[in-house]
Amino acid sequence: MIDFSLTQEQQMLQKKARDFAQSEIMLIARKIDESNDSKIVPWHLCQSLFRKGADLGFTSLLLPQEYGGMSGKCTDFVLVQEELGAADVSIACSYFNLTAAMSLFITRGGTIEQQKRIFSYINSGEPLLFSAAESEPLVATSDIFCPYPDSKIGMRTFAQRDGDTYLLNGTKSASITNAGIADIYFILARTDLNKPQQESLSMFYVPADTPGLSFGNRTEMIGWKPSHHAEIHLDNVRVPVENLFGQEGKAGELLMLLPEVAIGLAASYVGLARAAYEYALDYAKQRVSWGRPLIEHQAVALKLADMMVNTQAARLMVWDAAHAADTTPQLAAIKAPAAKTFAVDVAIKNAQTAVEILGGYGVTKESQAGKFLADAWIGYSCDFSRDILRLGLVNFM
Length: 397
Ligand SMILES: Cc1cc2nc3c(=O)[nH]c(=O)nc-3n(C[C@H](O)[C@H](O)[C@H](O)COP(=O)(O)OP(=O)(O)OC[C@H]3O[C@@H](n4cnc5c(N)ncnc54)[C@H](O)[C@@H]3O)c2cc1C
Hints:
Oligomer: single chain
Helix content: 40-55%
Low-confidence stretches: none
Structural class: alpha+beta
CATH superfamily of the largest domain: Butyryl-CoA Dehydrogenase, subunit A, domain 3
Bound molecules: flavin-adenine dinucleotide
């Protein structure tokens, strides 16, 4: 049976997220967007926001109750992420989506000892910010999907086994989300450079204060201004073998365990698509041309109708993918990238249409339309490019 109605608890959760997003996230995002101070560190303004959101349960929503979480489902998570994304997609994705989804990863990919170790921090009441690093400056990140068994293709960051420890060396790209501000890093490295990447990728848990770990300057992007991205330098970073997640060389399988990352991003982008639609709708109701509001001109009304229909279609794909994540994870492996790429396409299209409907005002810094467009385009390559994710779907045809 198909039922799209929300339970009373889900409606309350959605309202809680909407209230927080509109009263708190929007305010901070606006402040950062409008600031011309290049020295501003967005995280300094976002940190208390992150703590408040964590207190409301948004970073631990997916965690089982025994770890201090809410035992929520992915179908609950997407309701929250859409609301956060409608207020600011970069805050929704960088801080909340990444941390919430990586927490879940620990329960699925970590040993009992690792779970106890990491979640003991969570129970201390101080929310932890996570970062996950695979991209490297001199390697196409798309190589991670390369089917050829060629040891020369793929990441170069190397983890050398040394007794009861691993020694990590390498550089991660300037796009790494939360690099330099996170508490815990999940680092992907090769444990054998003579084997193909598919057989040699391993995932390590590296606390921020580990000697040898350092970071580049904050990367400026065309949008996503409230977020923080930087290079990670690993210079003889030594971690105990207990910090290896899953089996050595099998990190590829671990990554398949987490469709929630892409689904949460997709939901956040539905939020952006919705915000762009509502913003353009509001303008079209107020702006008068030829003696009547823009919305009464069919050419404009049709654009708004397309925005509304496409947003709804993207939302249904996200809900469908979330339902699969909750019930049939093997299906979620297909539905998650499909939903993420579709939601970002819709967000880009809606943002572009908002710029069109707002006319000359749409390209001013004062209007929100340009911000929507820049933020929407970032979704194209965030967490793997649109095309590489779509090409991956061919494997399931
Ligand atoms: C906002 C943001 C946040 C990010 N956060 C993180 C993070 O936290 N951690 C992290 O590790 N990385 C992160 N990234 C990096 C991101 O994962 C990569 O940018 C993305 O996967 C694309 O990889 P690339 O830039 O190396 O492009 P490339 O892999 O070099 O690809 C360039 C272009 O070529 C196309 N292409 C490449 N290979 C093929 C092929 N075989 N067939 C067809 N087309 C192909 C791609 O679709 C793309 O359009 C982030 C990026 C952004 C923008």
